[in-house]
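Propose amino acids for all 65 sites.
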């Protein structure tokens, strides 16, 4: 039986930290400066996986310019 990995649409801050290999403060700085969009649901902060992909794409585009 093969195991499949399901990529969640919404990520927690620790999951974003792991994907971007950044610290907690830096991730919150990106959220605060609106470079990385997020929202809160109750007391939980969630970041759409697409927002992380968009952030990476922007950084790659900036680096190549």
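Proposal:
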């Amino acid at each position: 039986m093969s195991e499949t990995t399901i990529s969640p649409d919404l990520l927690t801050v620790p999951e974003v930290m792991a994907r971007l290999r950044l610290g907690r403060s830096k991730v919150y700085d990106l959220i605060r400066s609106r470079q990385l969009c997020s929202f809160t649901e109750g007391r939980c902060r969630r970041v759409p996986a697409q927002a992380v992909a968009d952030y990476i794409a922007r950084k790659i585009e900036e680096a190549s310019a």
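The mean pLDDT is 92. The longest strand covers residues 44-48.
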